[in-house]
Amino acid sequence: MKKAMMTLMMAAAAATLLAGCSSSEGGNAAGTTAAASADTAAGAAEGSYTIGIGQYAAHGSLDNCREGFLEGLAEEGFVEGENLTVLYENAQADGSIASQIATNFASQKVDLLCGIATPMAQSAYGVGRRNDIPVIYTAVTDPVAAELANADGTPVGEVTGTSDKLPVEEQLEMIRAILPDAKTIGILYTTSEVNSISTIEEYKAAAPDYGFEIVETGISTTADVPLAADALLGQVDCLSNLTDNTVVASLPVILDKANALGIPVFGSEIEQVRIGCVASMGLDYIELGRQTGRMAAAILSGEKKASEMNYEIIEEASFYGNTAAAEALGITLPEELTASAAELFTEIAAE
Amino acid sequence: MTQLIGILEEGFIYAIMALGVYITYKILDFPDLSVDSTFPMGAAITASAILAGMNPVLTLFLSFAAGALAGCVTGLIHVKLKVRDLLSGIIVMTALYSINLRIAGGRANVPIFSQQTIFENGFLDARIPSALAPYTIVIILFLITLVCKVLLDLYLKTRSGYLLRAVGDNEVLVTSLAKDKGLVKIVGLAIANGFAALAGCIYCQQKGFFEISVGTGTMVIGLANVIIGIQLLKRFSFIRSTTAVIVGSIVYKACVSLAITHGMTFGLEANDLKLITAVLFLLILVISRDRRKKVKAHA
Known about the structure:
The complex is a heterodimer. By secondary structure, chain A is an alpha/beta fold. Chain A is built from 13 helices and 13 strands. Chain B starts with a helix and ends with a helix. The chains are: A alpha/beta, B mainly alpha. At the A-B interface, α1, β2, α3 and α4 of A face α1, α9, α11 and α12 of B.
């Protein structure tokens, strides 16, 4: 029995060691071929680089950010599998895992840390500043409140990135155009998400200008969503979503309840409209990721330091509409909006 | 090397919390869920106090005191209001979620990157030789954890400490000694939650920010640390349980770290992280269980 146990432990240890070796060999091999191809091809980036991408949670918007980020890097000549090794981990919305992921990336001597969503970005910066690794972030709504940037937009250290601040005014204007008679807008948000709290403040400040009143309901976990949605839907003419991670993840439940009552739900970005929100003036997270990727490329190539770049936001909000969702509620999307739409969905995608 | 340091740093922070869980779960046999909220409470208090200009070292004591107070509440609800153990923890955990948000000034995320902490301050910068600089954090954490462990060991040898152990083993005995077993439980819960809040305080200072979600799953981590440590070091009877808990905590974080580093190599995805961690725990527990079986067979 004792022998059996020892064998098992040895096997486990050996497996770990082997795994360690194979991963570093893989990395080196990729590195050398990458260097070769970079010389022959564009030659934009010499040598090989390793970056660690930590994503706070798994949902459509953040996944799009990551996809866009890699595209942005590729545009500038940093191609995954050629001259770029990408380590990717998902914290699954667990704060303690987020910081451990960042620590692990640092121990693997990455050239750049990328944090997607606020808690991950802070964890990455917490580790990066102690190990002299530049940090780039995306999908952080308020980098100033998160102490990743100073009030004037300059970075607090070797850290910069992009913000996914919502175009609140444009969203309110759009809702007014689609629902001329609506008076109240309901917003569901998670009390633990700073992004949501600061956006709600903006909504409240801007709403009177468009003749709206904001009714908000805070939840603390996914399990609260159905009850909170029921309570909120009884008091409002429509719902508008934020980029709240918990609420967005439960969107199908909310849509189901809202549709049953004939109350339109407005999204905050393309993925939400795809799965059945009526419309949204929102960000294209792939584009946001791409912009971040280009900034990362500038840091990797040594063209600029992270501390020399202010954080960026996407200036233009685009219109996304779902004609099928609108028809189901007996709403017609105004011509002037659909004409300039970035994308119009004609069916509700099953998630 | 950096990975090892990272594991030790995380392991020590959670070991302090696990010492608390050791008191409630192993000694008192009380499944205390309030640690899920006293851990972030320590972090919230620390972030707010440091921003208000308090000395970072003092926040350690303040957090412990606040955690102990919350532990008392759990104990009072259980002992005086006769609410079941698990439920009293849940009640306090739920209530503290809102209270924590209030402590943090209504914000779910409070960064203190630019502030002085126990790990980064003028006092240390002037005294730590540059060769040791990368290890400053891990050394400080080791010292704090050691102090906590030694204090707990000493406490468990006092009169009150013996009563604490007696309540877990045999409540009737304590009553027959004309001691109030309820009071002993409250004291145990207070110490346990004090440790959890202290761990939260240190966590916040090391990471540089408070985030309301850090507490989720704290009790589960604590339980895993206690069980892994005690199972793993069972055969070495000269090792104290408190030491075993600290070892367990480091082993736990090593498992998570291995899962993060090597998960992808086995063709697994980032999303499989928790599954890998779970499999590693199971492996450890199965290995140490075999050992116990063997002893029984021979006995």
